[in-house]
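re: the backbone from monday

yeah here it is again, tokenized this time
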């Protein structure tokens, strides 16, 4: 896998994750200095899974993010495009349903899920806006979207420190991993990924309302959320818009 950009080849990315599946979570812990556990804990709290809810966890990998939601009683479907990740996930969590699929063409019917989540996998999607449209489609009205992804620290000092740390990742990858190119890709994909405000605009553009984000670890990671509006909410928006337009005129 060469230098990453937002036009990444899905088959190359999938092959890269196939090769790293068994040690993926271990290496994540190493390169994030253990912060990945804290980020996933914050993500799970934001999702607030309820017993009996249907939740789609996209880019679920080995199921690390899916397991806490399933433990809370939610009916979790873990989707990933890497066969290697899915095989490892099924071995670790046989109680969770794993499905191989593409975030841009979800193999599920309309209005199927109460929540859609994606943790640290969105930047691996070839067309994130197409994926957001699919997330919107498979959510029930009122359903919630949660995205936890690497981001851009807004403060200059934090941003400089983050860049300095990221430069060490490929070096350590060459020493600690049998697939060091995957860690070059990790850094490149984070640098190519848009900032918090841009991702929020993408989420709104897909039709979500109540869009907001919260920075974690000074903005090195951001937790985004949105809601699929209900029919009542959409009707109210249509009623209120002409009045707002008239007032503006």
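seq for it, each position gets an aa:
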């Amino acid at each position: 896998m060469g230098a990453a950009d937002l036009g990444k080849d899905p088959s190359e990315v999938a092959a890269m994750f196939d090769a790293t599946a068994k040690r993926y979570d271990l290496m994540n812990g190493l390169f994030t200095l253990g912060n990945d556990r804290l980020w996933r804990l914050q993500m799970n709290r934001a999702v607030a899974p309820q017993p009996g809810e249907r939740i789609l966890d996209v880019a679920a990998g080995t199921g690390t993010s899916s397991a806490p939601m399933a433990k809370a009683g939610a009916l979790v479907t873990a989707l990933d495009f890497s066969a290697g990740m899915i095989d490892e996930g099924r071995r670790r969590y046989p109680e969770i349903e794993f499905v191989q699929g593409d975030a841009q063409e979800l193999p599920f019917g309309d209005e199927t899920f109460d929540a859609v989540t994606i943790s640290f996998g969105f930047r691996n999607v070839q067309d994130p806006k197409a994926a957001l449209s699919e997330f919107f489609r498979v959510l029930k009205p009122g359903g919630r979207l949660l995205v936890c992804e690497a981001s851009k620290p807004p403060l200059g000092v934090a941003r400089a420190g983050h860049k300095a740390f990221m430069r060490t990742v490929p070096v350590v990858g060459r020493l600690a991993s049998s697939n060091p190119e995957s860690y070059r890709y990790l850094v490149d994909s984070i640098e190519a990924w848009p900032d918090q405000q841009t991702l929020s605009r993408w989420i709104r553009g897909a039709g979500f309302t109540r869009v907001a984000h919260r920075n974690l670890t000074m903005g090195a990671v951001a937790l985004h959320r949105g809601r699929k509006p209900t029919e009542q909410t959409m009707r109210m928006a249509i009623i209120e818009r002409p009045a707002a337009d008239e007032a503006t005129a």
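The chain is about 50% helix and 20% strand. The first strand starts at residue 54 and ends at 58.
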